[in-house]
Amino acid sequence: MYLLRTPIRDYAWGSATLLAEFQDRAPTGRPEAEMWMGAHPSAPAGAVPASDPESLPVPLDELLASDPEALLGEAARFGRLPYLVKLLAAGRPLSIQAHPTLDQAQAGFAAEEAGGVPASAPHRNYKDDNHKPEMVVALTPFAALCGFRSAVDAGTSFSRLAAVLAENPELPEDSGLSQGSGPDAGRSGPADTPARAVAGYAERLLGSGDGGDPAAEGAAIESVFCELLDPAGNWASGTWVAAVVAALAKAPRVLDEDLNLATAVGIAGHYPRDPGVLVSVLLHRLDLAPGQAIHLPAGNVHAYLYGLGVEVMAASDNVLRGGLTPKHVDIPELREVVAFESVPVPYCTPLSDGAGHLVFRPPFEEFQVERLDLPAAEGRTLTARGPVIAVCTAGRVRLSAGPDTAELAPGESVFLGADEPAATVHQAHPADQTHPTDQDEAAAGTLFAVTLP
């Protein structure tokens, strides 16, 4: 068993407080976005034998390379530790993004390697040759945009927005929102104003959804998505975006009625001129309670908005971004990987044995996620198909595997190789207490463990 020394990535969208509060430590004053527990070469965790916790950490990817058959077991078929575990702490919206399929990742990576694009280049799209299906389990209230809504639902929101624009004659003359008062005012037509553009989107989406044709619906979603994000289009300068948000801010009743439009205004507080603000209208807005989970296959457009969660994915850092970010945006490449289809929210409902043990099994071959809640799961043995990464998310948890023992507090984690004895889970209490108190019960331990399905 190895204790993990985990790097924290300080991406701009990270929360300055969520991880610090979670680990009961002082904030650093910097955004703390992701704690990485894995062997991805971008930020491998350090591994320290549990039997010698004061020794120098060895990067986990180097440790695995020293004996892949023993440490990875049947996971060696992937050629790497197949998953990456993170604690994700979003203080502001992440980029609108999607991830490639395995074939797309392999082709994109090979092309950029052949083209001599440096691995660290900010304009590089493919950091590795792997896909990145993922899931997230909320630890706090967690908000996200996830997958395209039905064309009718999205069209209805754009129709409401068009009505708001038509009812705002006092908008600034230079905003592009002035429509006149003739019979064609507010109707779709040449996209020479955002009002006309929005009305056109509403008409296009509502029309495609009426016939029950998934191909037509997907084509309408794709056209609106790509027009909004066109770097040479009318929305790119941000003037239209800012003016539309200003109009919505004057329509509180509409915002109360339409969660997606309210979400767009909220996102604009962080990215006031970004066309991704309007893209959010196309996507499901969902709010996860602690313990709820979603899974995201390749091609699913998504953006996490705020909250702390356990995120697990195939071991990849490949992200194609479309907005809400200062990082590289490549709309043509994003368009190639996005699945333009309306989908239901991909909730991942766990299986439960009723004794403090839950198993999340998304439809991916790289991982499953177990959650063990103590004291109900006291003495439970972890499922161990292949290697295991386990992280404590509440209270204190003690893991025992053969002669090795590790006691974990929130945010602390371990790696167990495939050749190690199965680990058992116990509630840990302060050394000076023999019996738990009511306060200890309130802080009962929770452990998440990731292994092969």
TrEMBL record:
<keyword id="KW-0413">Isomerase</keyword>
<dbReference type="InterPro" id="IPR011051">
    <property type="entry name" value="RmlC_Cupin_sf"/>
</dbReference>
<dbReference type="Pfam" id="PF20511">
    <property type="entry name" value="PMI_typeI_cat"/>
</dbReference>
<keyword id="KW-0479">Metal-binding</keyword>
<dbReference type="InterPro" id="IPR046457">
    <property type="entry name" value="PMI_typeI_cat"/>
</dbReference>
<dbReference type="InterPro" id="IPR001250">
    <property type="entry name" value="Man6P_Isoase-1"/>
</dbReference>
<protein>
    <recommendedName>
        <fullName>mannose-6-phosphate isomerase</fullName>
        <ecNumber>5.3.1.8</ecNumber>
    </recommendedName>
</protein>
<dbReference type="InterPro" id="IPR018050">
    <property type="entry name" value="Pmannose_isomerase-type1_CS"/>
</dbReference>
<keyword id="KW-0862">Zinc</keyword>
<comment type="similarity">
    <text>Belongs to the mannose-6-phosphate isomerase type 1 family.</text>
</comment>
<feature type="region of interest" description="Disordered">
    <location>
        <begin position="170"/>
        <end position="194"/>
    </location>
</feature>
<dbReference type="GO" id="GO:0004476">
    <property type="term" value="F:mannose-6-phosphate isomerase activity"/>
</dbReference>
<dbReference type="InterPro" id="IPR014710">
    <property type="entry name" value="RmlC-like_jellyroll"/>
</dbReference>
<dbReference type="InterPro" id="IPR016305">
    <property type="entry name" value="Mannose-6-P_Isomerase"/>
</dbReference>
<feature type="domain" description="Phosphomannose isomerase type I catalytic">
    <location>
        <begin position="4"/>
        <end position="150"/>
    </location>
</feature>
